[in-house]
Specification:
mainly alpha, two-stranded antiparallel ribbon, DNA-binding, WH_DNA-bd_sf, HTH_MarR-typ, WH-like_DNA-bd_sf, transcription regulation
């Protein structure tokens, strides 16, 4: 739970509440570690994977519509901005 709450930058209590809701809705499941019973693994269920795919497709459709409305210059600027954001996220992940 600590690792997830650190990555999401929320308290352990908030992370527990969020996970409880996702478990209740059958999007994720918790599995105890055989090596350390205090450790818990969280993984997507089939229902969770389908939901992620559904959300991803909707996001792609929305982004495509927005990008198609832009002229060539604006599309290039958007691409540059996305590249910059991607680089910043990669740097953050290395920390």
């Amino acid at each position: 739970m600590s690792l997830l709450s650190d990555i999401m930058e929320v308290s352990k209590g908030t992370m527990t509440t969020m996970l409880n809701k996702l478990v209740e809705e059958e999007y994720v499941k918790r599995t105890s570690s055989f090596m350390d019973r205090r450790s818990i693994y969280v993984s997507l269920t089939n229902k969770g994977e389908k939901k992620v795919d559904e959300i991803y497709q909707k996001l792609l459709e929305s982004m495509t519509k927005v990008i198609e409305r832009q002229d060539k210059k604006e599309q290039e600027m958007l691409c540059d901005g996305i590249t910059t954001l991607n680089n910043l996220f990669q740097l953050k992940n290395r920390e």
